[in-house]
Structure formats: C-alpha cells, structure tokens
Amino acid sequence: MPKRLPGNQKQPIGDRLRAHRVDVLGKGLREMAKRLDVSPPHLTDIEYGRRTPSEDLLLRMAKAYDLDESELRAGFGRPDADVAGLASGSPTAAAKAPVFLRTAKDLSPEAWDKLIKQAEQLSQKSQPPKKQGGKP
C-alpha cells in the first residue's frame, strides 16, 4: 500500500521527496532519475522546487517512491484531471465547486468521508426513478 511522506506538511514537497528517496528508499539521484526515465538535473530541479512534474511523471513518481498519489498532487498543487473536468462541466458546477472546496478544505479525512456519503445520497435522490419492466 502506498505510503504518506513523513515530515512536516509545511516542508516543501521536494525536500520531503529527497529525504524519502535517500533515507527510506536508499536510492541515489542518478538511480532514481533512471528509474523515472528523466535526467538527473530534471529530478534535481523537481526536488529543489524549480520544476513541477508533468501528469505522467507525477504518476511514475508515486509508483517509484511508493507514495500515495494524493500526497504528490497536494504537494505539487496538481489536482487530478477529473477535478477540472467535473468543476467545469456545467455553469452550476463551475460556480459552486470552488466555493464548496474552499469551504471544505480543512475537513478531517473522516469528515470528508461523511460528506462524500451525503453527496452520494443527494445524488441518488435527484435521479429520476428507474423504469420497471421496460415500460414508462
């Protein structure tokens, strides 16, 4: 199961990645860069906060570092592509999603789970009833 990065969440993601690569994985910069199929200077730039990984590289990093993808997304400020698509899927979503996310940003994981269940219940209630036996 992918892990969370240790250390202070306020510490830059690159510093935490570098510490994880060296202290936990025991890998050198060149070895990890080769595993990620990037140049060592490219990985150095990411670890020092001078570059942000592409979507594809972020996914490869999550696997190579054995880290939860959400940890990297949060650290690099790169939301999942679904978030942008869903938030801009309709005028209502484009207006309400940012407000919703700003309001909910500091919720605990448990509170997020509860909120997701509530949203699922609301979504089910707003869908038209299924037709029985193929007749309207």
Q: What would you say this structure looks like, in words?
A:
Helices cover 62% and strands 0% of the residues. By secondary structure, it is mainly alpha-helical. The chain folds into two domains: 13-76, lambda repressor-like DNA-binding domains (434 Repressor (Amino-terminal Domain)); 90-126, no CATH class. It starts with 12 loop residues before the first helix and ends in a 10-residue tail after the last helix. The model has no long low-confidence stretch (mean pLDDT 87).
Structure in a nutshell:
By secondary structure, this protein is mostly helical. It has eight helices and no strands.
Task: Give the SSE layout.
Blueprint lengths: L12 H12 L4 H8 L3 H8 L7 H10 L4 H8 L4 H7 L3 H14 L4 H18 L10
Helix pairs in contact: 2-3
Structural class: mainly alpha
Shape assignment: elongated
Taking all residues together, what is the mean pLDDT? 87
CATH superfamily of the largest domain: lambda repressor-like DNA-binding domains
Any idea what the radius of gyration is?
20 Å
**What order do the SSEs take from the amino end to the carboxyl end, as H and E?**
HHHHHHHH
Low-confidence stretches: none
Q: What is the CATH class designation of the largest domain?
A: Mainly Alpha
Ends distance: 47 Å
Biggest β-sheet strands, sense, barrel: none
* Number of distinct beta strands: 0
Looking at the overall shape, the CATH architecture of the largest domain is Orthogonal Bundle
Helix content: 55-70%
Bin the strand percentage. under 5%
* Total separate domains: 2
CATH topology term of the largest domain: 434 Repressor (Amino-terminal Domain)
Number of helices: 8
